[in-house]
Amino acid sequence: MKTTKGKGPARSSREALKPADDRMVGKRKAAARPESKRKVKKDKQAKKDPNKPKRPPSAFFVFLEEFRKTFKKENPNIKAVSAVGKAGGEKWKSMSQAEKAPYEAKAAKKKTEYEKLMNAYNKKQSVDEDGDEESERSKSEVNDEDEASAEEAQEDEEEEEEDDDDDDDED
DNA sequence: CGGGTGATTGTTACA
DNA sequence: TGTAACAATCACCCG
């Protein structure tokens, strides 16, 4: 399903695709790291867990999510993910920690939730096979907690602030 | 038709 | 301590 949408502009935009011709399946920093399995996210996990907590987006990703919208908005012609990544990364480094602060705050929040999910996930794994029913019960509990926490999380909006203005960098 | 890949950095978890 | 791998996104390509 999702692939169908890609056929739109198709090759025309291909120009916007990665300028580097290495679009091939080459690895990106393979040489940098020794074995470097950094890419290949194929099997991911041998077993698929029912609700395995995915790692929360780092501050960079939080910023990137928003950046992606803006980037695409100003660069509707560019649809390459790598382009946004590069641009985002560049800008990210250009930003001062103060500006990254809000993103970091959000990331911190996600991390907290992630820890929570891990707790639930951990519980699930601990479940004994005989407690199938029990496991369901636990799930309910977790769900309940999850909802409650989610609500709380939503409320907080951050604004921790940052006074350390000394360093900063910038241009 | 579907999955895999490209790129960015951060963060997390294991040895 | 350090590495290794994964987190999102989206268009495009191979089998």
Automatic annotation (TrEMBL):
Molecular function in Gene Ontology: chromatin binding; DNA binding; structural constituent of chromatin
Any GO BP annotation: chromatin organization
Compositional bias per record (Acidic residues), positions renumbered to this chain: 143-171
Keywords, comma-separated and alphabetical: DNA-binding, Nucleus
Annotated HMG box domain residues: 53-122
Compartment(s): Nucleus
Matches recorded under InterPro entries: HMG_box_dom, HMG_box_dom_sf, HMGB_plant
GO CC annotation: chromatin; nucleus
DNA-binding stretch(es), residue numbering of this chain: 53-122
Composition skew (Basic and acidic residues), residue ranges: 12-25, 101-116
One Pfam short name: HMG_box
Region of interest (Disordered), residue spans: 1-58, 83-171
Domain of life: Eukaryota
Record-stated family: Belongs to the HMGB family.
Annotated protein name in UniProt: HMG box domain-containing protein
